[in-house]
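ZP: hey, is the flavin-adenine dinucleotide complex queued? I don't see it on the tracker
AM: it wasn't, my bad. submitting now with these inputs:
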Amino acid sequence: MDYDLIIVGGGMVGASLAMALANSSKRIAIIEAVSPQAAQQPSYDDRGIALSYGSQRIFEALGLWNALAPFSTAITDIHVSDRGHFGVTRLSAKDEHVPALGQVITAKAMGYVLNQAIAKQNNLELICPASVTKLQQHADHVELQLNDQRTITSQLVVAADGGQSTIRKLLNLGALQHDYQQTAITANISTERAHNNQAFERFTDTGPIALLPMTDNRCSLVWTVKSGHEAELINLPEQDFLAQLQDRFGYRLGKLIQVGERHSYPLRLIQADQPIQHRIVLIGNAAHSLHPIAGQGFNLGLRDVAVLADVLSTSDSDVDLGDARLLSSYKSWRLSDQDSTITATNNLVTLFSNDNPILGHLRGAGLSLTDSFPPLKHWLAKKSMGLNDKQPRLSRGLSL
Ligand SMILES: Cc1cc2nc3c(=O)[nH]c(=O)nc-3n(C[C@H](O)[C@H](O)[C@H](O)COP(=O)(O)OP(=O)(O)OC[C@H]3O[C@@H](n4cnc5c(N)ncnc54)[C@H](O)[C@@H]3O)c2cc1C
């Protein structure tokens, strides 16, 4: 066997899994199509990622938080409102007795830290640029053919190759796909007032707007619009774009002063029919791509990583990593968190991307009710911090 484990996709999730298994005796290859330093690297772009408190704890347990912290900005408060309706919900780190509800970091900075760390590990080999063209499952191993004609084998293959996963396609695995007919516009914004570590989620009749606190007192914008409208907004002169955003978002951060480079992402839900196959596991976006409305996509993928690394790190050093019992134990552990996060995200999109006036009143009442009912608010905060389900060792701050 060439490797004990091959990870296909060295994006945020695949690279995190490699680092979670870095101190094991296992030989691990990471196959990545695009160099981490390349401008077109799809995982490590300029989008701001809201890391939950649970994700921060996983990175702490991996010994990576000290390197990530200088690029991160704490979220101490979250303000949720609905444009044109009464009712707000406020979540605060103080009420939840945690130092921060989450942290915001650009995907690019995360990629830099993860790839620097991978380069220092003897048991990790990054094969890049390379992609998989053929896959064969045998009784005791999987064989992958790469685009340079090389053939490599391992006990287990983990597909972390994103929403359009090649491994999922090579396996002919079905996936639920739903096009939201929405597109996210991202950019960095400078504002008149300091964000004071507050994150804002504002629902509007044309889609939700998130402004997340960032370094240098900037905010990271995710503005969801109906697909087809994004090109017009992206091409608007700076002050016209800011005026439209100001009209939708309001003046909670004072005047919006400057906008950086704008990017767009078409949004769809993708959920693989099966996360495991004979000697293969799908994790991160390859298994489930979510709408960014609640900032849960990467956090969910990182919880896949923490559980898979936990299951694979048994005390038996001769263990076969592709053993069907290990993979089904991973699948059953992840089922509830994956299903509930996907359903909650999907319901939020349906409820809050809707201009029905009756739903508008119900949303307002729901936000006020949540704000004034501490147990519900506490449950919501715990869910968004990724602390509601059975916690693997890394999420509890324990090394593997
Ligand atoms: C606008 C926006 C905002 C978001 N905000 C948040 C947020 O605030 N919080 C949050 O938790 N999540 C957020 N997300 C979701 C988050 O970006 C994704 O969940 C995350 O990128 C998934 O990581 P991944 O590694 O699974 O997949 P990807 O990031 O898609 O990475 C896949 C990797 O696999 C490589 N690859 C693909 N095909 C092959 C192949 N055939 N062979 C080899 N390599 C291959 C790619 O080059 C890439 O490096 C947001 C998403 C969007 C679009």
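AM: back. The domain at 3-68+103-177+269-351 is CATH 3.50.50.60 (FAD/NAD(P)-binding domain).
ZP: great, adding it to the tracker
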